[in-house]
Design brief:
By secondary structure, this protein is of the alpha+beta class. The chain is built from 38 helices and 42 strands. Strands 8-11-12-13-14 form a five-stranded antiparallel sheet. The N terminus and C terminus are likely disordered.
């Protein structure tokens, strides 16, 4: 290439190689130069009043919350993805190794087996998590495909056969072929004297630095610091090559009289308001600043020499450069251009992240090439913005013009398209480890331009064009670019052989492969049918890569016939939502360490990204969002303190960017011998220039919380949608439901708004054999018909929260009255309650074998002289569906012969039926017509349909789950449930989820609250806690027998009737462990407490010595403050113990003393009559008592409590004494007179204006759980 002459060269010295010494005009350093170049004393060059570098605040990059966990080699190299390895069991969150998810995983394409069997569910989940993350971060590729992109290096690999060299040695050989630096031809603004220093410690962010890097960076007067500065020859060696290539690109544009470059500098030809009728912008765009420019005909453009000179005149001494890292105001981005400091027009900030791998010895040659090309692309991109800064008035710098017909204005991407053919993205992108971007690049991904998703500033979008782009599916392609072209771009031979002949066209990245933008499970890579998009010189290399690619794809497809079917299932289920799964893991950690800001930040993220709605949750219509996900978010919100009321706080952290003039800048801008008095002012070397982000009030994101009871009510409303419309696998519904029940139990006791509650939701293990309700149009094609019950049938959940019915379903609804027998239904437990000689019921299956009938044989037994309970038990025993006759008793036949003749049945038995039984009753051939909804089965044979359409839909779903269109909205579902409730004839027996994977722990005090359907019917037996909520009405021993057992330790009652081995049959109901309460001073050696739970860590001494050693100093100590220090190892160890080793819990500290003080006017609001569902409180002995569940389910308690006592003084001493004796946990707190500010559930209060809450913790010791 023969560049035009330039009058703006930055130095008079040229060199065929990247020099280790600076060019003339740059300041020398005595550290690595001879004594002839004595260092200029830096402090003397600072003007009066300049910032003292000795007191510059030290910035520490914050660690990742999971930073104490070990990292895999790939995670250390490429960083952690936004989506963590969510396949890790949540309880084992802190064990093992954090991974980048870029490693190839099962199955490997090199597997020699002809057929790879389908992996387990856990392995499938891990496979798809990894591939989805790779597909997102690698722009459509998977890790096993990357080697095909990087088969060859331009000019050949610098490794002779049979010779082994280190990556650093290979690079020393290969860099001999790199572009030759010619400073004489540079624009002045590219010179070394235009650079500022970044004074953060470089050494802390580089692993195994290249020889001499750190020694050469000991810059006086800071011998203990290592800075990012071009005064360091190794750093300048990198940037000199980057600047050389950028200079060549712009020089080539001038040589070719490029239309973009010519037009951008002719501001007089820009059009303002010239196309208002064609443009559509968002409301915050002022049309008087909308400008467009277009290419002029070639004969109207300036010559190459004129363009180059104009560019030199425009940018010389008007542009400065600086480095930035994660600690600065720029933050995390590729590059940035800002209004210039010290009198210049623009300051371009270059990221150091892609320089880090270039300064490490272990970086392979190919990855060095990728990092260098990324830096060239960044500098070229930002220089286009800087040109705009030099042209535009200062107050209009961010209003860039539109180019030609592009509907997104972004000059940096414009120049990328002109030079490279598309916009470039290094992969993986935005990966950080412990707050640092490591800068390693596997390949490049290219995308077409304009591309509104790659430049998301809405005020830079012309909306008509954006809408046309979105409507065209062909705009969703990405083009992966491998190492062959990246390495060629850096080499002198490429520029002399190809660019000199082909010009800018020779720089366009070749498009041979194309991938769809990440969506669903489309992981295909296709051949790009555009042969003119890559150079002829590269054809053979890329064809070879494509052949290898196809061979790998075909091999993987032939070995994994199960792949696409299983992948499709995974994408249809909630497990595919990696952002939600990752957020749950992060929230779990922040919650365990009581990091309120971290928890709130996760909630804001979920509200805006997962639900994709405005954070003003109160305005959301439930049927417009995924209510299953919303309930998980509400569980999070309810588990953290609610202060400040109605809002989530997102803090603002101050960041600095101190731009210190390098020695090169000092010498280059001021001149070596120019006296201080004659120096121009202002000038860029008058620094340091310090930028700092504003730190005002915390940023508040509006989120109307109301109260926790209101949130729980919202969850119950959502449940109708979760269960009946949006659906989801049973294990997700059960996990959400169990967490809701646990929350209800906590809210029944003494809870203040500033208290932390338990967050019990855990992501269940992957179970693919479920169909989402979104496929309801296909569900009727599933055969055999009973397999339709893989459609979101939630196990036994209607009993808890029935739509449209707030009562206790089994007790208040007997069920469908059979049209033939006119009999209603009773549950087996209800039938078994009639088990005595003077109240004797038995069950008998009818002749069809379909129904089980109930007979009252009390009178017949009296006639047969069976007049005692002993005699009764000899002939009648407990059966699975109720009391039944003993076959070998002498009077059995006499009783059986009377059934159906002299003794008519009174009821039918409501039993559990298998899906196969329901499928048989499909309404054909005279059979009944049954449909299921949730866990309930309805006989709709004689159901009064409202119209023919409803009749047709019921006919289509006969023998299977109810038609989704019948319950498409929660209002329609609630109305239909009310009509169907009298037609319930059975319950569905579906697969039970083993809930022991997420066992909860209870004390006798906390267990006492779980004695009703809202909070769960829990019973403690032999140290285990069982959920009898669904089983109680099917209990063969009767429902009444369990009345006094709920919420208590019933071990003694159990032992009277059962053997302990029978507990093995109840494992599906086991939900927790029952432990005693002890005082802190009574803790034993090797016991540690976390959040009031006492752990015996003695076994860790052998199982996990490192963890034991960290925990040992906290034995028999209060760990409250240790947990709060989230980045310290004790905090992480205690969180690890709390989340992953709950099996070590042996006791709990007492929770009986912590009652809150209640303002009288707050108490008066809890009458149960207000629309915010605050609950029902009554006053007795000066304390407030929560009697909500006691009034809702009076049939379950021996003492009846009337709801009219809500908000009033309880004058019935019998009830009051019963509350004190049996329901101490329901004591909310002491009522104090006074008009404290009342928590207004409607207000969205400002944090600064929020008064102190009226709730206080009353305790002899420090607050706990707050």
């Amino acid at each position: 290439m023969n560049p035009p002459s330039s009058s703006g060269s930055s130095s008079s010295q040229s060199s065929p190689k990247i020099p280790h010494g600076p060019p003339v005009g740059s300041p020398p350093r005595s550290v690595y130069f001879s004594n002839a170049y004595a260092p200029f004393p830096f402090p003397e060059l600072l003007p009066p009043g300049a910032h003292n570098p000795e007191v510059e605040p030290e910035f520490t990059v914050p660690a990742e919350p999971f930073g104490s966990r070990p990292l895999s080699p790939l995670a250390w190299k490429y960083g952690l993805p936004d989506y963590l390895d969510t396949t890790t069991t949540p309880e084992r969150l802190f064990e093992g190794t954090l991974h980048s998810l870029l490693g190839t995983n099962h199955p490997d394409p090199g597997d020699t087996r002809s057929d790879i069997p389908k992996p387990s569910n856990a392995e499938l989940d891990k496979l798809f998590v990894y591939e989805t993350t790779q597909h997102r971060d690698l722009y459509g590729l998977k890790s096993w495909q990357l080697p095909f992109l990087n088969l060859k290096l331009y000019g050949g690999w610098p490794i002779p056969d049979g010779v082994t060299r280190s990556p650093w040695e290979e690079w020393h050989i290969y860099k001999k072929s790199l572009a030759i630096i010619n400073y004489d031809q540079w624009l002045t603004c590219f010179g070394r004297e235009n650079w500022y220093d970044l004074r953060t410690n470089m050494a802390q962010t580089i692993q195994d630095p290249i020889p001499g890097l750190i020694a050469d960076a000991q810059i006086p007067p800071f011998p203990d610091k290592t800075f990012w500065t071009v005064d360091n020859p190794h750093i300048w060696e990198v940037m000199a090559l980057v600047m050389e290539l950028t200079n060549r690109i712009y020089m080539q544009l001038c040589v070719e009289q490029n239309g973009w470059l010519d037009s951008i500098m002719k501001t007089s030809s820009w059009k303002y308001n010239g196309h208002e009728s064609q443009f559509l912008f968002s409301k915050n765009v002022s049309l008087d600043r909308v400008a467009t420019f277009v290419d002029h005909p070639l004969d109207q453009r300036r010559s190459a020499q004129e363009l180059w000179q104009d560019l030199e005149d425009l940018t010389s001494r008007k542009i400065t450069w600086a480095f930035f890292d994660e600690s600065t105001t720029v933050g995390n981005c590729y590059g940035s251009t800002h209004a210039g400091l010290g009198g210049v027009h623009a300051t371009i900030k270059v990221p150091v992240n892609y320089m880090r791998p270039l300064l490490e010895r272990g970086t392979p040659v190919l990855e060095r090439c990728h990092a260098l090309v990324t830096l060239v692309s960044t500098v070229m991109h930002e220089f286009a913005h800087a040109i705009n800064f030099c042209l535009y008035p200062v107050d209009c710098w961010d209003q860039e013009p539109f180019y030609n017909n592009e509907f997104v204005r972004e000059l940096g991407f414009c120049i990328e398209k002109i030079v490279f053919g598309s916009i470039t993205n290094s992969c993986p992108n935005e990966r950080y480890t412990e707050g640092l971007h490591r800068g390693y690049v596997t390949h490049f991904g290219m995308a077409g331009w304009p591309h509104p998703k790659r430049h998301s500033r809405k005020w830079d979008h012309e909306l008509n064009g954006v809408n046309r782009w979105l409507a065209d599916p062909d705009n969703r392609w990405d083009y992966p670019i491998g190492g062959y072209f990246a390495s060629a771009f850096l080499c002198e031979k490429f520029w002399t052989d190809i660019v000199a002949r082909r010009g800018i066209e020779g720089l366009k990245f070749p498009r041979l492969f194309c991938t769809k933008e990440p969506s669903a499970f489309q992981f295909h890579v296709s051949e790009c049918n555009e042969p003119d998009t890559y150079l002829d010189e590269f054809t053979d290399e890329y064809k070879e890569a494509l052949d290898a690619w196809r061979a790998g794809e075909n091999a993987m497809a032939s070995k994994r016939e199960w792949y696409y079917d299983e992948c499709s299932k995974w994408w249809d289920l909630p497990w595919h939502h990696l952002e939600l799964r990752t957020s749950i893991l992060r929230f779990t950690y922040f919650h365990a360490t009581r990091n309120l800001n971290g928890c709130r930040r996760i909630l804001v993220l979920l509200l805006t990204n997962v639900l994709d709605v405005s954070p003003a949750l109160v305005n959301i219509v439930p049927e417009d969002v995924s209510s299953l996900y919303e309930n998980i978010i509400l569980l999070m919100a309810a588990s953290i303190p609610l202060f400040p009321f109605g809002t989530f706080e997102v803090d603002r952290v101050a960041k600095w960017h101190s731009l210190w003039p390098s020695q090169a800048m000092v010498k280059g801008w001021w001149g070596k011998n120019q006296p201080t008095a004659l120096r121009p002012d202002p000038h860029p070397a008058a620094g340091p220039w310090i930028e700092q982000t504003k730190v005002g009030n915390p940023k508040m994101t509006s989120f109307t919380l109301r109260s926790r009871t209101a949130m729980l009510k919202r969850m119950k409303d959502n449940w109708k949608i979760s269960e009946f419309k949006f659906g989801g696998p049973m294990v997700w519904l059960r996990a959400v439901h169990d967490a809701m029940v646990h929350l209800q139990g906590q809210l029944s006791g003494s809870v203040s708004p500033d208290q932390w509650l338990d967050f019990e939701f855990r992501i269940p293990p992957y179970e693919p054999n479920w169909v989402t309700s979104h496929k309801f149009r296909e569900e009727y094609t599933i055969t055999p018909i009973h397999l339709r019950y893989r459609l979101n049938t939630p196990d036994e959940l209607n009993i808890y929260f029935p739509p449209g019915n707030s009562g206790f379903v089994p007790a208040k609804v007997s069920g469908y009255k059979d049209p033939n027998t006119k009999l209603r239904y009773k549950y087996p437990g209800q039938v078994a309650d009639h088990f005595s000689h003077n109240d004797a019921w038995i069950v008998m299956r009818d002749d069809t074998g379909l129904d089980i009938r109930v007979y009252d044989v009390t009178g017949l037994l009296q006639d047969l002289k069976i007049d005692t309970d002993e005699k009764h038990h000899e002939i009648i025993r407990y059966g699975p569906h109720g009391p039944e006759l003993v076959d070998d008793h002498p009077n059995t036949e006499a009783i059986r012969s009377a059934l159906g003749t002299s003794i008519q049945p009174n009821y039918l038995v409501m039993i559990l039926r298998r899906p196969e039984e329901v499928a048989e009753q499909d309404g054909t051939n005279g059979k009944r017509s049954w449909v299921s909804w949730g866990d309930s089965i309805y006989d709709v044979t004689n159901f009064p349909f409202k119209h023919d359409t409803e009749r047709l839909r019921f006919r289509r779903c006969a023998g299977g789950p109810i038609h989704s269109e019948l319950i498409s909205t929660w209002r329609r579902a609630g109305h239909l449930e009310g009509r169907l409730v009298d037609y319930r004839c059975a319950h569905l027996k579906v697969q039970s989820w083993d809930r022991r994977a997420n066992l909860r722990y209870f004390t006798p005090w906390t267990l006492r609250l779980h004695d009703n359907p809202d909070t769960g019917l829990y019973i403690g037996i032999h140290g285990r806690v069982y959920d009898f909520s669904s089983y109680s009405f099917f209990h063969p021993g009767g429902f009444e027998m369990l009345h006094n057992c709920w919420g208590t330790d019933a071990t003694s009652v159990f032992d009277q009737y059962h053997k302990i081995e029978e507990l093995d049959n109840w494992t599906h109901m086991e939900i927790g462990r029952l432990v005693p309460e002890i005082r802190l001073e009574d803790m034993q050696p090797n016991q540690v407490t976390v959040h009031n739970w006492v752990f015996d860590i003695s076994s860790l001494q052998q199982q996990d010595p490192p963890l034991y050693n960290i925990l040992y100093p906290y034995i028999q100590q209060d760990t409250y403050y240790a947990v709060l220090n989230i980045y310290a190892s004790p905090s992480v160890a205690l969180a690890n113990l709390y989340l992953s080793r709950k099996d070590l819990i042996v006791a709990s500290l007492p929770q009986t003393k912590y009652h809150i003080n209640i303002a009288r006017n707050e108490f008066n609001l809890h009458t149960g009559e207000n629309k915010y569902d605050r609950g029902i409180w009554t006053e007795y002995a000066g304390y407030a008592w929560n009697i909500t569940e006691l009034t809702r389910y009076p049939e379950l308690y021996p003492v009846k409590v009337d709801a009219n006592w809500g908000g009033k003084l309880l004058t019935d001493s019998v009830i009051g004494d019963w509350l004190i004796l049996n329901h101490g946990p329901r004591c909310v707190g002491k009522i104090l007179e006074g008009a404290w500010p009342v928590w207004n559930p409607k207000a969205d209060l400002d944090f600064a204006a929020t008064p102190a809450p009226p709730y206080q913790i009353k305790s002899l010791k420090r607050k706990r759980g707050t």
